Amino acid sequence: MKKLTMIEVQQRAVNILMYIDKICRKNELKYTIFYGSLIGVERHKGFIPWDDDIDIVMPRPDYNKLIDLLKTDENYTLLAFETRTHYRYPFAKLIDPNTIAKTKQYFGGEDPDLGVFVDIFPIDGIPDTEKEREKLREITEQYRLNLMDTFKWCYARSFYFSKALIKLIMRYPYHRKLLKEGNDRYWRDKYQEMAKSIPFGETKTCGYMEWIHINWGVFPTEWFHEFEDVEFEGHKVMAIKDRKKFLKLRYGNYMEMPPEKERVTHHPYDFYEK
After folding, report:
1. What's residue 252's pLDDT?
2. Staple 268 to which of 101, 104, 218, 226, CB 3.0 to 4.6 Å?
3. Where are the domains of the chain?
4. pTM for this entry
């Protein structure tokens, strides 16, 4: 197999994004390029040069509709709770089926079909009070961790074999205890039930469930009412109009380049062409 260069990975990810964009525009669905990819839009009009993935987020109703449309897609492979009997992430990944990813983690639990991808995160309604948000996040986070701890040997995942082996042995009793209560599908369903418990738009705030305990993970719902086209690698993609408010909240001075030693990709994968 041929190992893909950073530029080749980026180009394939852009192709996936534009495929998603086409489907969303055709079906009147809204998404926004987000997180580090949104820094790329504002600072580079494309990728952060050392980044090799793309993140988008969608209000849950649009997310659900997109998942339904992609379930039987013949051009790309959808990894999601809705398409996999066993899956470790509470968000979807759309995969280039002509590529394959090799993880640098031991016992990572990655799907065998994983390749170059775009991450698609659902945005759900969340409580407007901090106390209620913390309670919801505590419950959903425990379910998410229980899912991970009952998924294959994922509870032992580590970049170092010695650490993975120690975790495999030391945490095995807890792994077995959780399995007696329910397997990964049980915890997946518990997570989904709580994550979807407040319909998007019924409260003044929203967020991706894993981060709602942090100030930059709590968004005004009105941010996801207005979208506009922005440039990404020479293409038009969607973004929320209030994106600079999010970027300042999350990253502070997002236009400032980080120190050179921090300009590295953080994903634990190498990608290859099949």
Report:
1. 93
2. 104
3. 2-255
4. 0.94
